[in-house]
Design goal:
alpha/beta; Rossmann fold; ten-stranded mixed β-sheet; two-stranded antiparallel sheet; about 25% helix; about 20% strand; globular
């Protein structure tokens, strides 16, 4: 059994995906939201996993005051908070690893550094913007993470995975990061290879779970570089990480701070789920999810293309423009990415709207949002509809973790 701890656990997406394979056992978890008195996500977690060794205390406080409560483990997983570089924020507001949420990366780092027996393996998830954050120094934050992991003795691989590219019902693009202690069986295997390219294109854990075809010649020299300097020097580096340079591509591996990275495309020929395939029967939909005729014009306006003259607070006049959003959403393909604001009756450009067989338009229900992330039906039951939508907007696609877990477990056998 692979003993696992789950940090920034939300409502348990990592746990669900890993424990479906019966090879993993989550021995400790932590979920804490600093901006609210009631720990809504943690309450859902405890309700769905009764008896779990679960903490709802600030992870930084746990590390400082009760570090021994974190049990030894083989695998550390977490979708560490990404609000500071989320696609839901404008790029210039992205403060990256120095922002309030971004600093929680150092909680992971502290556990790895201070554990007498640190985990041999890591599985992490974040928005793909992490690879080019912050706006003023593209890729600096990811370089700091990679360098700090290398200094702690880990080999790291990553790839940007769009769940829909592999048959899952939602177009949700995220960067997944896996790390292996250099003295672990997998770490030793990687370091023995003649070329790191072999690992990410042929023999690797992530390649087995999510096959990709690298887009260019592996020998191109600009695909290789070394992350130099201590962490403070990387932070202050405005030469290698400029506002225009993007050193980290969609797929990559780092060994002893030596990086190979490239762009890659998904390889998948299996069945694909669609938005239409996960919808509940129209007769089971509560009336409040249907859009009234009086509100249709407002929805159509927000979803439509527009170019409007607007005046800034400074008095400057400018034109605001945006393209149309499909309205209603197409049922014959994977859904658009779920956002945290899916809940509530108010008209929105970003909320999903589907047309029923009778021709009526409606929003998605909490159960349908859960299905798009491949959670069990009613996993978040007990919270308000708005909170349930918020949870799913923050969650990962469970099917991605399930496949990565199976690939890792097969290697460890």
């Amino acid at each position: 059994m692979i003993k696992t701890i789950e940090l920034f656990a939300g409502v348990g997406g990592f746990r669900l995906g890993l424990e479906r394979s019966n090879e993993f056992k989550v021995v400790w978890s932590n979920q804490y939201e600093p901006l609210t008195k009631i720990q809504h996500a943690s309450d859902v977690y405890k309700a769905r996993f009764p008896g779990a060794n679960h903490s709802d205390i600030d992870i930084a406080k746990v590390i400082d005051e009760d570090f021994e409560s974190i049990p030894d483990h083989d695998l550390l997983v977490g979708g560490f908070p990404c609000q500071d570089y989320s696609v839901a924020r404008t790029l210039k507001k992205s403060s990256g690893i120095q922002g309030k949420k971004g600093v929680l990366w150092w909680s992971i780092h502290a556990i790895l550094k201070n554990k007498t027996n640190p985990p041999k393996y890591l599985m992490l998830e974040n928005v793909d913007r992490l690879l080019k954050s912050p706006v003023s120094q593209r890729g600096r934050d990811f370089a700091i993470m990679l360098a700090s992991l290398s200094d702690l003795g880990y080999v790291v691989e990553w790839r940007v995975i769009n769940a829909a590219d592999y048959g899952m019902p939602q177009r949700r693009k995220r960067v997944y990061i896996m790390a292996y202690k250099s003295d672990s069986d997998i770490g030793k295997e990687i370091k023995k290879l003649k070329s790191p390219v072999d690992w990410i294109t042929n023999k690797g854990v992530m390649q087995e779970a999510f096959p990709m075809q690298v887009n260019s010649t592996p020998s191109k020299p600009d695909k290789y570089f070394v992350i130099e300097g201590d962490l403070d020097e990387i932070t202050n580096n405005t030469v290698d990480y400029t506002s225009k340079v993007r050193p980290f591509d969609t797929i990559g591996v780092m060994i002893d701070r030596k990086v190979y990275t490239d762009s890659a495309a998904a390889e998948y020929k299996g069945k694909k789920k669609t938005l239409g395939s996960i919808l509940e029967d129209e007769k089971d939909i509560p009336v409040e999810f249907f859009i009234s005729k009086a509100d249709l014009d407002k929805w159509a306006y927000l979803k439509g293309a527009k170019k409007e003259e607007r005046t800034a607070s400074s008095g400057h006049v400018y034109y605001y423009s945006e393209g149309p959003v499909t309205f209603p959403d197409a049922l014959d393909r994977a859904s658009r990415t779920i956002v945290t604001g899916e809940g509530g009756k108010g008209a929105s450009r970003f909320k999903h709207v589907v047309e029923t067989p009778s021709g009526r338009l409606r929003r998605l229900t909490p159960v349908e949002l859960e299905r798009l992330n491949m959670f069990p039906d009613n996993h978040t039951e007990g919270a308000t509809d708005a909170k349930r939508a918020f949870f799913m907007g923050n969650a990962l696609v469970v099917g991605v973790v399930e496949r990565l877990g199976k690939s890792l477990a097969s290697r460890l056998k």
